[in-house]
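Write out the 3D structure for:
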Amino acid sequence: MHVGLIAPFSSEDIPWVNDGGERSIPVGYRGAPFVASIALELASRGISVTVFTSDSSLSHGAEVFEESGLRIVFCPARKRAWGFDGWRVGRALDLFAFERSCLLEEIKRYSPDVLHAHWGYEFALSAISSRVPSVISLHDSPRDVFFHTKSLYRLFRWAMTLKTMRSNCIYTAPSPYLFEKLGLKEQSCSKVVPNPVGQLPISLGRIRPAPKSRRVVMVCNGWGGLKNPQVALRAFKLFRLSFPIAELHLYGVGFEQDGFGHLWSKRNGLEKGCFFHGPKKNEELISSLDMMDVLLHTSREESFGVVIAEAMALGLPVVAGENSGAVPWVMGKGAGGVAGALVDVESPVSVANGLEVAFGESYETFSAFGFDRVRSKFLRSVVVDEYLALYQFALKKVGDGFLYSN
């Protein structure tokens, strides 16, 4: 079987890139390291894998790299969403037509037996247009993202997903929450398949005893209403009233030194005990998380929450929203325990109390439960077993005359 993964994919997420050799490999499309986990697991089983992704540093012509049984095809993409990008209009204005045409050309060149597209946007639409049997994994609710951001760009992305979901592909969602939110239970051939956790947090993970330190970590890309970092910073100030030694380490876009989050914290008198590290490559981020004690995640909504699962894999208790979409399910609510404290993320007092609970007498119990849950539900080998069954099903359905097209 030749599997084509068509998805956001960064060369930074694979171990043999930039190893000191003479190769210069495009970065690709950052933000979804779990896709690399899927690709590497498939390749480790001797399955032929081609990854199709985009890179805005390329203006024309794809670049291709192969090693260790994995082929990566980087397709050109426009840098701008609006206005002109060179002689081309911005990518949002034509719903990524140029990017989709480049991806489609490369899919036809390499002819995978089955495609696995991630998100319901340009990658999914390219898979559908190819008429190759396809599995489409939807990772967000574009409607909810739009209403949180009020962005015209997100409105256009929502329209793309609506078009995607009119096809006869096999769909997956990473949590029961998103599965129901998107109405996938009404679709035939759809299934909940969680996102996989990479090998590094699995290898570093351990069940942790209650620490003497109070090192809290938050990973948050963006400052909008969806991720809700303001409540986290206010809650941490309250927590430090009881634990003056506490530290809050912040990672992600906007949380570098003198970034927007740092400056906002200073203006509001909330920077004491806070350390602003900014964005990091996934490997660096996991290594930094491993040195922390508790993950704080005050997002108002998550369709899965990869950083929560990574923290659990490391053995970190988590403080996160009791009504934040898939978060309670990822943390194990309803499965005989929970990997930390579930709180009201609209209330700094509730979040601060959750931090006290996480560091309290149940700390090791939280750590052990999260450690075990990841290894039973979210290992990349477990997840890829589920996807392989869907790939085989997609091929069988085509053989039975089931067409994967609009």
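The mean pLDDT is 92.
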